[in-house]
Amino acid sequence: MATRNIDKEKVLAYIVREEDEEWQLLIFAHRDYPEAGWQVPGGTLEAGEDPRRGVLREVEEEAGLAGFLRVEFLRQSTYFDPGKNERHLRYFYRLEYPSGGPNQFQHRVSSGEEDEGLVFLFEWRSFADLPELAGEQGEWIAALWWKNFE
Q: Phi and psi at residue 82, in whole multiples of 5°?
């Protein structure tokens, strides 16, 4: 589905859970590259890959998570990555995860060209306590917040 003027197709996962009657978002930082800032799981789609399948693949690779209660497409938008001089078509998804489990954990990325072997430090954060996300990844947080109450 790549079109002219689009260099890559990306997926981003807003993984949420309800814990103690409060909705939380899963975010991460790079253990060895903290300057990369806070992010949500995601990555590049493989050639011809369906975005829904891609977001589930990326989340399993980057966070080691599966078994979601719901997976919903939210929005798509374009983003220019100035560091790579690329234009991305980004698909944002809301993935609802069961409550429980640790509030913080780390995961070594299991595959992927650029990230394989990196260690990501994950935290569940309430919406009231979210930091700014790198690369405009927080672009659709407001849409996500309202989805939690539908």
A: -65, -30
Whether 2 is in a domain gets the answer no
Residues linked to residue 133 through DSSP beta bridges, in sequence order: 38
Tens of pLDDT, residues 113-135? 678 889 999 999 998 899 999 99
What is the CATH number for 116? 3.90.79.10
How far apart CA 111 and CA 129 sit, in angstroms, is 30
Instruction: Give yes or no for a contact between 88 and 78, defined as CB atoms under 8 angstroms apart.
Output: yes
Q: What pLDDT score does 148 carry?
A: 56
Whether 120 is in a domain gets the answer yes
Number of domains in the chain: 1
